[in-house]
């Protein structure tokens, strides 16, 4: 690490320690308010309004602590249950939701120890560098002014002026220890906060269940919509053409003796119709599961896709083998959608797809040199990718500053790679 | 003309056999999986092999791989690959050895019997037959070197890439044969390709160029 880095981190931590003291002190009135409104619960109506209100404040304070902890590299998830439907502040439903959530009580239990820890660590974080600063600046000043001074650091009391000037190296040492150590002390505070602010194992499972419920519902919806689309495409496409094909052939059959030329014309028409029906089916199949994906896996399918797009696309892959079929399919469609977005909206001249894996995570990165400014909220494309990946606990992140470049990074946990089934041939 | 056929669906295998037999081709062997293709080719040394891309046992691109490796064992072995879908990627792999006698067509084209038999003959005699769909996909790329070509030149190029001779292109586009060769010369100049009299080398050069 650059020396400037640790100084910057240290100073930031010292500043954080300074802010932490009043914030921690804020815990105490919150605690008092909580207890008071809890007791007021015996008064019908009043506690039902006030306690949830105070809880909202406590949660805001706890959320702030979580955000600050994240700044020190300690991730603390929000443990709260989602509000039941039709829960309005002041209502019984809302009150019960607040009261029965264990996270409410854990927050409450955190307020006082959190305050003590926050103040103690904050004071410590400030005091050490300040003491060092005193050794470096103040003591030489006071000696110069001739003010009486008794000692500093290890030397107590000063017997000579020389002793007094030893405060300089000592002060410098203490100052650097204080600044360098501040981020670690901040981290200690964050770890302490995590003890009570993080979800319990139960709450974690509950969160996971609600997340799975959402992604499952999304997946089921998306699949149902997909099936409806396939049904409609078949109904209005290939089926219609096959009916017309049968009809034309039937007509030709009737005409073949009376009007051979007419029959021939009808048969040619029938042939055209069969070609069109096949084209329809091919298009449909490509949307369900591209044949090249089944034949070549993700690697080959993405290369084939890149060849079919209107701008030059570089594909670089480092995958040891084939993925499980559902993951492979999700990965392919995610990349395809990202590339479609690129060619549709970015005005890019070139794009790049990289596929690799770290451990058991498949990473897919699609970047382009286009205009940038892509916004997941703006279109359905990026949202669609997110939904598709979420079904497999995958994630998508987007970096697209105005002016570009746009980089879409998608990650998918994948259990395994099976060995390649086809020899890799000259596909470069 | 002697043909070896590799197609796993009995319905299509029989249909293709009937179709080829009706057009003075002898189907000397019809196999239904990838691994059986090469021994059959070595044994019968046919004039052309007609191969389905997706074959057992893997049901992936078994047929394509078998065709490519067959051309490794028997250099210049004419192969016509049929598929339910076409990929420029596969076309590139088929063309990678830069010798002729390669065809790559959608199965749909079978319904146009005369054209299909013509493609089989062309491939057997060392020519090429690229599906219009492959050519279309290649021409659709926006930032290709083809942007320098005029509309007419693109049309000629597409016909050429499918494997048609100057005469056939002239008939198809309702222009004179002289005009066709003028367009072709322009195309070669604009694409920086060395002129060549050999139809087949010409097509290969164009396709390899487009695929790059």
TrEMBL record, chain A:
A GO term, aspect molecular function: ATP binding
Keyword set includes Repressor: no
Catalyzed reactions: ATP + protein L-histidine = ADP + protein N-phospho-L-histidine
Ranges of residues in domain Signal transduction histidine kinase subgroup 3 dimerisation and phosphoacceptor: 226-293
Pfam families xref list: HisKA_3, Sensor
UniProt entry keywords in alphabetical sequence: ATP-binding, Kinase, Membrane, Nucleotide-binding, Phosphoprotein, Transferase, Transmembrane, Transmembrane helix, Two-component regulatory system
InterPro entries noted in UniProt: HATPase_C_sf, Put_sensor_dom, Sensor_HK_TwoCompSys, Sig_transdc_His_kin_sub3_dim/P
Segments forming domain Putative sensor: 19-197
Enzyme Commission designation: 2.7.13.3
Transmembrane segments: 12-32, 38-58, 108-131, 137-158, 165-185
GO CC annotations on file: membrane
Protein name: histidine kinase
Taxonomic source organism: Actinoplanes siamensis
Lineage, top ranks: Bacteria, Bacillati, Actinomycetota, Actinomycetes, Micromonosporales
TrEMBL record, chain B:
Protein keywords: DNA-binding, Phosphoprotein, Transcription, Transcription regulation
Domain Response regulatory: 2-122
GO molecular function: DNA binding
InterPro entries, A to Z: CheY-like_superfamily, NreC/VraR/RcsB-like_REC, Sig_transdc_resp-reg_C-effctor, Sig_transdc_resp-reg_receiver, Tscrpt_reg_LuxR_C, WalR-like
Pfam family, one: Response_reg
Entry keyword annotation includes Transcription: yes
Domain (HTH luxR-type): residue spans on this chain: 142-212
GO annotation, biological process: phosphorelay signal transduction system; regulation of DNA-templated transcription
Modified residue annotations for 4-aspartylphosphate: 52
Coiled-coil annotated residue ranges, if any: none
Entry annotated with the keyword Cell inner membrane: no
Protein name: DNA-binding response regulator
Taxonomic source organism: Actinoplanes siamensis
